Amino acid sequence: MHFSCIREMLEDEEKRILSPYAAFSIHTRGRERDEEPCDMRTCYQRDRDRILHSKSFRRMKHKTQVFLAPEGDHYRTRLTHTLEVSQIARSIARALRLNEALTEAIALGHDLGHTPFGHSGEEVLNRLCSEGFEHHKQSVRIVEVLENNGLGLNLCWEVRDGILNHQTEGNPATLEGKVVRLSDKIAYLHHDIDDAIRAGLISEEEIPLSCRKELGFNVKERLNCLIHDIINVSLDQSFIRQSAACEEAMKELRNWMFSAVYVGGRAKEEEQKAQKMLELLFGYYIEHPEEMTGEYVRLIREGNSVERIVCDYISGMTDNYAIETFQRLFVPLGWNDR
Questions:
Q1: I need a labelling partner for 186 at 20 to 30 A (CA). Which of 77, 138, 216, 230 fits?
Q2: pLDDT value, residue 2
Q3: Strand pairing partners for 296?
Q4: In this structure, are residues 98 and 18 in contact, taking their beta carbons and an 8 Å threshold?
Q5: Angstrom distance (rounded) from CA 141 to CA 221
């Protein structure tokens, strides 16, 4: 078989196997710039691979999920969170006969725009930048503008839509995007519980009993319950939903996690230091934009606002790089260290 036939074979396979409510590769709304189709991969498989090989994807391995600069090897990072979202979303999509490649592409790309130090970094940039900063919009900016030396990844419209609308208030156009939106919440709630228990911040017994009775008495049981619930409610339907009971229990669990870990917990004790550090970096590069790397300087010369590009530069930093840059710019060296 010639390579040129493989993509067409895969597209025909989608027609035979997938639900009529799935997003078929052959029906994509396309890319911003026309390209010759790949001979071996559908358009969504191609997008998945582009995200997987991008620099911004690799940087997520050194970005905070919840625990800021954790010393243990077993705490989640933004990258491992992304992989867990992808696994949950693919399992649901496969069971519902949706387009697994599209689902995976959205899942892998949904958090590319996150700042160093998690949501605390996002809050800082959103406060300092007059144009605002939101990680879901930054994720789209990365794949449209910043990656590939300013050319972007030129992803399909459905992938970009799913990435843009993965947040709680979002409404993705495809069922695959809706699956990722729910899978993101399921993943972060349960791996954050797992990490918080490992860190000694909470115990299983402290989780509200009503949530445990409805969803399960450990992380594995709750994940299994929520995944099966979405599949049972949404199978052969034109929507992606949870049952009322599971949705309410997950909301209660999320609210409890915000009070116990995300906002009031000891995991956040270092946040103010990290935020102050990003404030100083932002101010420094606003005054000295020429000290950013060449690709960002070029974007300013092309007419982008300095604020926007400084946000691009800082949000692209890993936790470690932000700390190292801060030390280089603001921490004085002793004479023997020069």
A1: 138
A2: 57
A3: none
A4: yes
A5: 37
Q: Please give the CATH architecture assigned to the domain spanning 3-334.
A: Orthogonal Bundle (1.10)
What is the C-alpha separation between 51 and 286, in angstroms, rounded? 30
CB-based contact 154:105 (threshold 8 Å): no
Pairwise CA distance, residues 120 & 69, whole Å = 13
Interatomic CA distance for residues 206 and 260, integer angstroms = 10
Token pair of 45 as six digits: 């498989």
Nearest-angstrom CA–CA distance, 164 and 137: 6
Please tell me whether the overall predicted TM-score, pTM, comes out greater than 0.85 for this model: yes
CA distance 84 to 59: 17
Residue 133: which pLDDT band, with cuts at 50, 70 and 90?
very high
User: Rounded distance, CA 234 to CA 245, Å?
Assistant: 15
- What is the Cα–Cα distance from 289 to 291, expressed in whole angstroms? 5
**Per-domain boundaries in the chain:** 3-334
